[in-house]
Amino acid sequence: MIRIAKLETFDNEFVCFVKATMDDASFGWGQTSTYNADITAQVFHRQVAPWVLGRDATDIAGAVRIVEEREHKYPGSYRYRALAGLDTAMWDWRGRSEGKSVANLLGGTRTDLRAYASSMKRDITPQDEADRLVRLRDAKGFDAFKWRIAAECGRDVDEWPGRTEEIVPLVARALGPGVAKLVDANSGFSPSRAIEVGSLLEAEGICHFEEPCPYWELEQTAEVTRALSLDVTGGEQDWDLATWRRMIDMRAVDVLQPDIMYMGGMTRTLQLVGMAHEAGMICTPHSANLSLVTICTAHLLAAIPNAGPYIEFSIEGADYYPWQQDLFLGDPFRIEDGRMHVPAGPGWGVEINPAALEAMRYRSSELVN
Fold it and tell me: Which of 246, 253, 295, 367 is the 20 to 30 Å CA partner of 278?
């Protein structure tokens, strides 16, 4: 039996990479969820690593389950953010050991994915947003775009008065026909206001209305879903499978958007994907930065039967996300004709940049014989 012998983390405030080394010196790389990642690293070494050191490395689901059971009094977000680091490192190890990509391990054969260019900005004027998205359409071949409306958790107060009503038609018409158009309200509206805005979206050919109401108020979102004909989407914040089951059973949304890292890794995300597939629902995961989350999501979408039509691809560079620069060797995020390649190498098919690791805080948990 090959056992988990050492778990190392390399972290800063924004990102935490995990290296899992086995007692035969084989290894895999993973990542916890981004943001406050230095806190997540502490949770990892306190509440994840002690339960899995010495366990059978081939039993990824068993490792996930034992952490959930032993830390059952701490079922919240940080535990799952930390668990993602273990899970994704173990999947990478398995792929490296078998000489297969994670997508191939899951039975996937797709080599590239249609990407939607995802804007994170609200402090941008509608005209400037339209101009930059059109430039990306022409330069990179994107044929799907998402931009922001409302204000984050805005309680019907826009980022500035009238911005939503201005940016929706301006960007939609600038991008023109033959382009999929998506918007994200980030929990910004009440049901009545969301339905009002939804009518505008439908009139402008928008196909995807993300998180229209406070995400934790499933009944509010369901009201909007029932009232509109476009796809209402959500779920990126959620990690609890019971909540996901309720969301699916009540058809709170049309499209499910799990985040692999918020979910606790690939193993638990696959559980949700299976639930969704049984219910005839598709998954278009949340992957809003160019860290390992987008790589893992690419492998997932390349393999599952109920994948949505595209992968989320953040278009923000060093001015918005300076921390995500040069995390990997080479360029695993190349976009060609609006499509992202699924890394084909073993495991996740990417290598962490040693220079990035050197700048991070180091911590280690090891098996004591």
Answer: 295
